Amino acid sequence: xxxxxxxxxxxxxxxxxxxxxxxxxxxxxxxxxxxxxxxxxxxxxxxxxxxxxxxxxxxxxxxxxxxxxxxxxxxxxxxxxxxxxxxxxxxxxxxxxxxxxxxxxxxxxxxxxxxxxxxxxxxxxxxxxxxxxxxxxxxxxxxxxxxxxxxxxxxxxxxxxxxxxxxxxxxxxxxxxxxxxxxxxxxxxxx
Length: 191
Description:
CATH class: Mainly Beta
Organism: Marinoscillum furvescens DSM 4134
CATH topology: UDP N-Acetylglucosamine Acyltransferase, domain 1
GO molecular function, one term: transferase activity
Pfam family, one: Hexapep
Structural class: mainly beta
Largest sheet: 8 strands, mixed
Number of strands: 22
CATH superfamily: Hexapeptide repeat proteins
Radius of gyration: 20 Å
Helix content: 10-25%
Oligomer: single chain
CATH architecture: 3 Solenoid
Order of helices and strands: HEEEEEEEEEEEEEEEEEEEEEE
Keywords: Transferase
Protein name: Acetyltransferase-like isoleucine patch superfamily enzyme
């Protein structure tokens, strides 16, 4: 019996050592500020990218719910305001900044990408042409439907609804409903 316990304790020490090693290895690359009452319901993946100018910063303001499968990568700043609900398998690439306003609901499989490859010169490989970044701003009380993609430089007005499967490449007015590929204005919520 004592032998099993000893092996178990050694196993826990190894796990603790691995976690500490990962923390100290990645610590300079990202900073997470998470309040006590935020719920993280499953595994999330954080993939910081090394950048001499900035590191990945994730700040959570107030009570948020983050479901399983969230993947965050980049070297920018992700801000989640109070009451944000990120559902399963959302994908975030943040090399500039993404701000998500209070009480916003983000359905499963939504992608938010603030970066795009440059591709103007056909003589140079695309991967060698660098990238462009622009911030994404999502207002308060927004509902983003399943499988939508929010592209760089977009501002979504407060109270808006983004239809499932939409590709949002331009701004939306407050209290508007937008949908389609690419997205277009459909109607206002109070109409």
